[in-house]
Write a structure and sequence with these properties.
The protein has a domain at about 10-35. Helices cover about 85% and strands about 0% of the residues. The chain is built from two helices and no strands. It has helices at about 1-5, 10-40. The chain is rod-shaped.
């Protein structure tokens, strides 16, 4: 029962996916900003 909920569409999963998505975008931009700052030096 609990295992089947992992692949379901529960609010917890939606929230986790949203957080992971935002974290990935934030990390992507953070890395790009670091690279840009390094190139400018």
């Amino acid at each position: 029962m609990l295992e089947s909920n992992d692949s379901g569409h529960g609010a917890g999963n939606d929230l986790k996916d949203r957080v992971d998505y935002c974290t990935n975008i934030y990390t992507f931009f953070a890395i790009n900003l670091k690279l840009n700052i390094s190139d400018n030096k």
